[in-house]
Structure formats: structure tokens, C-alpha cells
Amino acid sequence: MSNSIPTVGVLHPGQMGAAIAAAAAVGGHEVLWCAAGRSPATADRAAAAGLTPAPDLAGLLAASDVVLSICPPASAGDVAGEVAAAGFDGLYVEANAISVERAEGICRLLERAGARTIDAAIIGPPPGDGRSARLYLAGEPADLGLVAGIFATGPVETVPLSGGIGAASALKMAFAGYQKAARTLAGVAHALAGRHGVTAELLAESHRMPGSPLADPDYLPGVAARAWRWAPEMHEVADTLAAAGLPTELARAAADVLGRWEPDRDNWTLTLDDTLSHLAVPAPPPTRVAEP
Question: Where in the chain is the domain with CATH 1.10.1040?
């Protein structure tokens, strides 16, 4: 580990994780990723982002001052469990789109194992190529400052939150609950309008609504390609709403609708017509991953 410039480890560099890791590298930080058991596509993303491969998780953790966990929501607990079992004693940044309760539980797990933790939320597109994202942070002020320093240069803006662990995840759930449900409803609306030949009229009405997702149906194939990640996130939104005594039906229903796009996972060549027609195909029952 470095005494001056922190070494950063990232688990695991998917599309968003690789982009965030690349932003950390812009500031001169060595950014490690665990190559063991990862796919060729992950290796290509890591290489393009300028990341340094570590032979295994133990090697990554031993060399890292700060570890960023950016993975699919269902994997967040398993990833944290592996890090805790390895005895990591640095700073663990839990930056996954998970419920407040799961974020708090993961942070407690890591803290019992000897690590310090930050609850984080990423809002915005994968940064780079003129795009920026916000990284909201909740935790101890000194740790927030450490992470802010890592991203002081580059396309990631860090935003400290005054609340404790769970505040960043609450923000992510609140934002994602609206954003992703609205886009899901836009897909259903366009599918219905298309069946009855009134798409042009629907678009005309949508253009009278400033900022409406209905005004941009060409965005929907991208929603379908991401739906395999968004559906579990909507379950996390529902869990957060339930804990607050609020209605969960819309979030659960949005997850069910997103499940109909599961076969379109990471298919970035979908046409709009295919995207809408796939909503007519029932989805298999969703599989939830139990956390310890």
C-alpha cells in the first residue's frame, strides 16, 4: 500500500465500474482489478481503462488502500463477504445500487472484519468522453475526503452527504425508483400505442410534456439491454420503500415488466420495434438472491 498516493482496487469492472476506475486513474492513482475468473470482455474493459491486473483477490486487497465495489446488485453481498473473509483493513466503498438495509448490513460486516466503510451512490452515465457522473458519499468525514481526493481530477464529481451510512443508498433508491420506473412505463405506453396505431398522437402529446421520457422512444432499446440489471435494482427500491412504510407495488411491477426484457441482456443492436414487441412475451419468475 502507498503512504502518499492511495492505491485503488475495483470489484469488478463492468461498464460503470471500468469507467469509474478509469476516472480514478486520471488522478495518477494505480487502480487494480482482479483478473482471476473474469471474462475476456471484462479484461478488455480493464485494459482500455488503464487498470493493473492483480493475480487474485488476496493480492488486490493486500495492495489496495481503497476498494470500490461496483457490481450487479445481486452480487454485492457475496463480494463484500469475500472481502471481509480476507480480512481487508482499508477503506471499502460500497457503491452498488442496493437497498438501505443491505448497504447498512454490508458496511457492518466489513467493519466487524476490520475495514472502514463508505456508503456510496453513483448517479449519471458511465463517465468519460464528455460525460460526467456524481458519486455521493456517506461516512466519516476523513474517509470522504480521501475518496474525494482520488476523484479530484476527472469526470467524477464527489458529493458528501451529511447523513450516516445508508444516506447515499437512500438517495440512489429514491432517484432510481422514479427514473427507472418512468422509463419502464414509457415502454409499456409505446407498446400499447403501437398496437392501436396511435404512436404519432402519443408522441405529439409527449412533446407537450417537458422532459418526458415519452418524447424519446429511441432510448428504449437501451433500457431493454440494461433491464437485467435494472430489475434487481427495482426490487431494492421496493425493499427500501417497504422499510419506510410506503407503497411498493409500482417498483415491484416495474421489476416484473423489466423481466420481460431479460433475453435482451446487453443486446445493443435491438430495434425499437423488437424492443416493444418483447414486452408481449411473459418473463420467467424472477430469482432473488438471499443475503446472509
Answer: 169-280
